[in-house]
Amino acid sequence: xxxxxxVARPMLAAMFVVGGLxxxxxxxxxxKAARPVIDRATKAGLPDDPELLVRANGVAMVGGGALLAxxxxxxxxxxxxxxxxxxxxxxxxxxWTESDPxxxxxxxxxxxxxxxxxxxxxxxxxxTDGRPSLAYxxxxxxxxVQRTARxxxxxxxxxxxxxxxxxxxxxxxxxxxxx
Length: 179
Description:
The chain is an all-alpha fold. Helix 1 runs antiparallel to helix 3, helix 2 crosses helix 4 and helix 4 packs antiparallel against helix 5. The mean pLDDT is 90. The protein folds into two domains: 124 residues, no CATH class; 47 residues. It contains six helices and no strands. 84% of the residues lie in helices and 0% in strands.
């Protein structure tokens, strides 16, 4: 792992670990703010307990942040954190609903900060750490299978021709032995 990844991943994860712990300790105020988002989520089959959902989001943030910071399954951890960031941002920073210009500006800044974090998480989610991606490796494996199939067919043709020549030679030797 490169030095940049070793330093950048914990830096990116710190916000999520701290925010997740806060959601676990103090879900009440956040549950109140999350109510509009939770109302939409309950239509998708999630439970209608705002504090439970805020705590679950906090657990995902702490777990994903810890995994990302330590470099364990960083791509999956980044994807999980990106998934937690979307509802958090929509619930906590709806600048479009604010009427006070100063509050609106502050909420917009926080919204854009979270948007920047989301961009960093998306980059971390696709970062292969210098190794080829799964799609590339699958493509190469498919090419390898095709190459093996072609080689096997060619070798089978050669073996068939060789066996025919050998059979003709043996037949000729047997015929000569009889005469």
